[in-house]
């Protein structure tokens, strides 16, 4: 049934009489706790305006004998703005009563449009109000749907710097009972500007029926920055690199829907250029206002490999891989540099002269001690500008189940037995295939800050532990194994730290190629591409060979106590204790009996 008259304030209170699917329920014992749906098989959806009194506890159960789920939407909530979420709230449960699993809780403090879905054909919601005497109104709309049935072009994921999307069937009328979610996520450092070219949805002052909800973040639990309907063309801007858009429609009055587009805005203020260096790429940001002096918007800029194109937004961004797009790699004086050049593409191969300014941006990343240093040379009619950037090689360390190094151990902490063989791998995450990882030093400590005492497993590339085995060089991976141990007079936790060197794999004179070198023979010059990795804690299970290792102090953790049997020493101590208790109890009882006998048979003296 059409709701063409419901926008008049007078008519909306009579709408429950006009339509069997839209009710106005007021609080009180007569209508506070009811079952909706039930035997009425034709009722697949319902809209309700709930008017609530102070100090009420109302429960509604939605059920239908059909294999479908329920979606319930609280599109308009007016509760006590000063009430706490504990004293006044809406709770939604999966099932036929409030004893079912809690799907979520809503109160006046929530900053989103609450939507919940049941796992089956029953759902219960409960509203509790405090004693404040104010007007309370909740608009509830629910309908049954099949989870396996989807509407084409209803939601999706958008991850390009710019794009567009529309409601299903646009510009034709949008479908009824639709709930579509679009997730927009761009690269870090950018914000999102969302522009609606057209919105044509049902008009309502509170946007209760058909609406668009825009969230400032990656999900519908992020902060709500807008709920719109009717005929408007708003613009929204995110505070980060993600935005979420929701379209919700009911069962009547379908119109054209919406058409939207978005662009990315680089969040930082860049006057000319910016460079950051990471393990796998160089990222160059060029200000469009800077390029205006060259009559360019960035379309004519290119790298040494012209097929690698920039991304255009309010800035021009080049994401340059270290092993592609014409990047030149150079090793000298124990440093590795990556260089590329950004220039204007020539208008025509036949051109011989030009009267326009020429721009050349030389991009250079140099790997430094524990970091990478970036340097940009900009030549503009013999004018050179320099900028520096810092970054780090990205490394990680992990434990593996076997010497195949295929399955990573994800447990933390990881519980092991004494003398159990552990397999450790340090990984370098980079796109440069010509680098190799060398394990220089690996040491263990009972504390996470690697404080004293420490124990060296590997030092100067040499194994210092009889159970430690260092694997040969293997590209971006440094590997070793050792047998588990514990520190004396310390907790049973062990943390590992490895200092690794990253070398050019083709340089056979590098420190990595030298392997194990004693300190007296070791080259003491600094190595500019070095980094650290830490892993832990590794904790011991209860020592199963305690009788043969009296030098270890055992510390039992709460997680380790179940199902651990008494050993012979524990049993002997317990029996001795029980025997002593029995002896003391026997002597005490015998003494008490003798005392009673003495007082009972003692004759009174005659005076």
From TrEMBL:
Claim: Hydrolase is one of the keywords in the record: no
Family annotation (CDD domains): CUB
Domain of life: Eukaryota
Keyword annotations: Cytoplasmic vesicle, Disulfide bond, Glycoprotein, Membrane, Repeat, Signal, Transmembrane, Transmembrane helix
GO CC annotation terms, alphabetical: zymogen granule membrane
SMART domains: CUB (SM00042), ZP (SM00241)
Segments traversing the membrane: 571-593
Bilayer disposition of the protein: Single-pass type I membrane protein
Compartments in which it is found: Zymogen granule membrane
Keyword rRNA-binding in record: no
Domain CUB intervals: 32-146, 154-265
ZP domain boundaries: 276-519
Signal peptide: 1-23
Location (main, coarse): membrane
PANTHER family on file: CUB AND ZONA PELLUCIDA-LIKE DOMAIN-CONTAINING PROTEIN 1 (PTHR14002:SF27), ENDOGLIN/TGF-BETA RECEPTOR TYPE III (PTHR14002)
Role noted for this protein: Localized to zymogen granules, where it functions in trypsinogen activation. May indirectly regulate cell motility, cell-cell and cell/extracellular matrix interactions.
Protein name (database record): CUB and zona pellucida-like domain-containing protein 1
